[in-house]
Amino acid sequence: MIIGLTGSIATGKSEVAKILRTLNIPVFDADATVHQIYENGTAAQALTKLCPEAITGKIVDRKILSKLVAQNPELLKSITAIIHPIVLEAELKFRAAHSEGLAVIDSPLILEAGRARDMDLLIVVSSMPAIQKARALARPGMTPEKFELITSKQMPDDEKRAWADYVIENNGTLEELAATTTSLIAHIRE
């Protein structure tokens, strides 16, 4: 069974993924895959013509890329069109390697990419907007403008909830999140 795990920035999706790993559930992390291809030369080759100023040797400088996207939000669509197929290929290899039992696809853009139907179940991690914003702004390098840009590219929380088979509310402690997640997985396994 392939479980899609998604949620907007700073809702706790990555924390849920960590908890799932402690439950011995394989997790494909789309964000980590993007970071990996930015560092291993794969993305540098693909993005050289689109944004050469963000390429240093064979590495994509994410800070420069982020600044370029902030200056030209349309650039994100072009970058995504190049990077998404590379990430999808890695995901397909993960799926093939974990074709029995539970496995999780952790991606903030499952819904935005129209991939909900590729999952057997969809879990959405959600937080109250004030908590979400406070968590995001506590991150290094995050600004209110960058937070607004990121959230403007993501599907609103109420729409994500409408797609979900299960919603994990993350407005409390990590211990509460772990208990909720563990209980949900037990329910799914039943």
Keyword list:
53% helix; alpha/beta; 5-stranded parallel β-sheet; Rossmann fold; globular
Characterization of the model:
There is one protein chain. This protein has 190 residues and is α/β, with parallel strands linked by helices. It has 2 domains: 1-26 and 102-190, Rossmann fold (3-Layer(aba) Sandwich), CATH 3.40.50.300; 40-97, no CATH class. It has 9 helices and 7 strands; from the N terminus they run E-H-E-H-H-E-E-H-H-E-E-H-H-H-E-H. It has helices spanning 13-22, 30-39, 42-47, 62-71, 75-97, 129-137, 144-152, 157-163, 174-189; strands spanning 2-7, 27-29, 55-56, 59-60, 103-106, 121-126, 166-169. Helix 1 packs across helix 9 and helix 2 packs across helix 5. The radius of gyration is 17 Å and the shape is globular. The chain starts with a strand and ends with a helix. 29% of the residues are buried.
